[in-house]
């Protein structure tokens, strides 16, 4: 997707200079070609199984991208009322909607009783009791899955670990067993699935072997159940470091798929980052290069308000100057906001960019624009999609009027 041609940076063989011409920076750019390639890799991994791919909308909630995914048969995994409205807005069939998240409100659960998604993943005993009360009141039945927490270390950043007993998500296996026994053949609340999601940006197969092995043994231990599917979550990592270490799909196919097959249930996947993470970039412009006796700072018009992952997680994103001059230096790449933490890289060795040149931050398709903000009254960036060689604006850049429309001076 990204490469240099005659020392000029290109995305899908179009120079970044041509792409950015007449388009104010910073902006996000997505490659539909790369998205499709990623989905095809998933399909090959699960070939021979009864499976359904859901896209985790929390990774990227652009409505045009969601619609494109829907049109090629990819379902959607939602975790909030806003994402629920998004799924409806782009025309998702309820049969292709998976509902996740903890802390669901009564009004949201009520909506689910009438919407009837493919599955409503229940996070706790308390949430199930809340749902049961509403179901009885409305005399509405619903298919649910219990989110179970297998207490497995996913070997990832602690902020995106979800499968340990200290994490806020899911229930322990003993609680799940008691609820399955209690609600067995319940007239309205039908526990038909189990849901496991142990974390995000995982690059090691062992946590999946451990987690799914525990779930397989758990299913075998149940005396009575009505399970008709297993939701195995997602969390597959991508190669942010460009070290060649990506999610080991072949090992997953050889070591994890056999465990899943033993469960003998249709499978639901929830993948976001793996589908779209490496299909997006953030394009910014160098305002100027600032040199001090101690450091060289490349000051860009992009900021932590546009991409917060480096500031929030201390995460690495590969950064590409517009030209591969070969003249490398050690630099800090920073934004213009009034925060010391407004930086994308520290002491990074890359070809030295020049004033007014473009700079591209890689692997920002997931958890990029969706986590942006108006901090320091920043205006959230536009988004563009390259598809079939054409560049289409799929969300405009905010303007001052957009973010001040609530204010009525004469109130």
UniProtKB/TrEMBL annotation:
Q: What class of enzyme is it?
A: lyase
Q: What is its EC number?
A: 4.1.1.20
Catalyzed reactions: meso-2,6-diaminopimelate + H(+) = L-lysine + CO2
- Name the keywords, alphabetized: Amino-acid biosynthesis, Decarboxylase, Lyase, Lysine biosynthesis, Pyridoxal phosphate
Q: Which residues bind pyridoxal 5'-phosphate?
A: 235, 270-273, 367
Picking any one GO molecular function of the record gives: diaminopimelate decarboxylase activity
Q: At which residues is N6-(pyridoxal phosphate)lysine found?
A: 58
GO BP terms? lysine biosynthetic process via diaminopimelate
Q: Where is the active site?
A: 338 (proton donor)
| Binding-site residues for substrate, renumbered to this chain | 273, 309, 313, 339, 367
Instruction: Please name the CDD domains in this protein's record.
Output: PLPDE_III_DapDC
Q: Which residues form a coiled coil?
A: none
**What residue stretches are annotated with the Orn/DAP/Arg decarboxylase 2 C-terminal domain?**
28-365
Recorded hits in Pfam families, A to Z, give: Orn_Arg_deC_N (PF02784), Orn_DAP_Arg_deC (PF00278)
Copy the pathway line from the protein's UniProt record. Amino-acid biosynthesis; L-lysine biosynthesis via DAP pathway; L-lysine from DL-2,6-diaminopimelate: step 1/1
Give the required cofactors: pyridoxal 5'-phosphate
Taking every annotated instance into account, which residue ranges of this chain make up the domain Orn/DAP/Arg decarboxylase 2 N-terminal? 33-276
What task does this protein carry out? Answer: Specifically catalyzes the decarboxylation of meso-diaminopimelate (meso-DAP) to L-lysine.
Instruction: Name the PANTHER family on file.
Output: DIAMINOPIMELATE DECARBOXYLASE (PTHR43727), GROUP IV DECARBOXYLASE (PTHR43727:SF2)
What does the annotation say about its assembly with partners? Answer: Homodimer.
Similarity annotation: Belongs to the Orn/Lys/Arg decarboxylase class-II family. LysA subfamily.
Q: Which NCBIfam families match?
A: lysA (TIGR01048)
Record's protein name: Diaminopimelate decarboxylase
Q: Which gene encodes it?
A: lysA
């Amino acid at each position: 997707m990204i490469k240099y041609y005659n020392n000029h940076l290109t995305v899908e063989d179009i120079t970044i200079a041509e792409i950015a011409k007449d388009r104010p920076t910073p902006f996000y750019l997505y490659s539909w070609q790369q998205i499709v390639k990623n989905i095809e890799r998933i399909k090959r991994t699960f070939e021979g199984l009864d499976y359904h791919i859901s896209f985790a909308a929390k990774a990227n909630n652009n409505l045009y991208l969601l619609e494109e995914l829907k049109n090629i048969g990819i379902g959607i995994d939602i975790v909030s009322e806003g994402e629920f409205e998004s799924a409806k807005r782009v025309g998702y069939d309820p049969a292709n909607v998976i509902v996740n998240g903890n802390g669901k409100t009564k009004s949201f659960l009520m909506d689910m009783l009438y919407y009837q998604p493919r599955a409503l993943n229940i996070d706790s005993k308390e949430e199930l009791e809340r749902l049961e009360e509403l179901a009885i009141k409305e005399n509405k039945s619903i298919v649910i899955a219990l989110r179970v927490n297998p207490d497995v270390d996913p070997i990832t950043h602690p902020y995106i670990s979800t499968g340990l007993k200290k994490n806020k998500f899911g229930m322990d296996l003993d609680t799940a067993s008691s609820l399955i026994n209690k609600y067995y053949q319940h007239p309205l609340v039908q526990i038909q699935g189990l849901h496991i999601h142990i974390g995000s940006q995982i690059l090691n197969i062992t946590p999946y072997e451990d987690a799914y092995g525990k779930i397989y043994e758990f299913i075998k231990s149940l005396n009575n159940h009505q399970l008709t599917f297993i939701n195995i979550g997602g969390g597959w990592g991508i190669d942010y470091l460009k070290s060649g270490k990506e999610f080991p799909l072949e090992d997953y196919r050889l070591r994890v798929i056999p465990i899943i097959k033993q469960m003998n249930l249709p499978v639901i996947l929830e993948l976001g980052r793996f589908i779209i993470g490496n299909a997006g970039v953030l394009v910014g412009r160098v305002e100027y290069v600032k040199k001090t006796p101690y450091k060289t700072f490349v000051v860009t018009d992009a900021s932590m308000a546009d991409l917060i992952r480096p500031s929030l997680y201390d995460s690495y994103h590969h950064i590409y100057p517009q030209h591969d001059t070969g003249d490398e230096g050690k630099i800090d790449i920073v934004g213009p906001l009034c925060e010391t933490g407004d930086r994308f890289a520290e002491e990074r060795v890359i070809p030295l960019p020049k004033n007014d040149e473009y700079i591209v931050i890689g692997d920002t398709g997931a958890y990029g624009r969706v986590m942006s903000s108006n901090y320091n009254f920043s205006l959230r960036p536009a988004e563009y999609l390259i598809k079939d060689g054409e560049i289409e604006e799929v969300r405009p850049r905010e303007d001052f009027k957009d973010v001040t429309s609530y204010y009525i001076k004469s109130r």
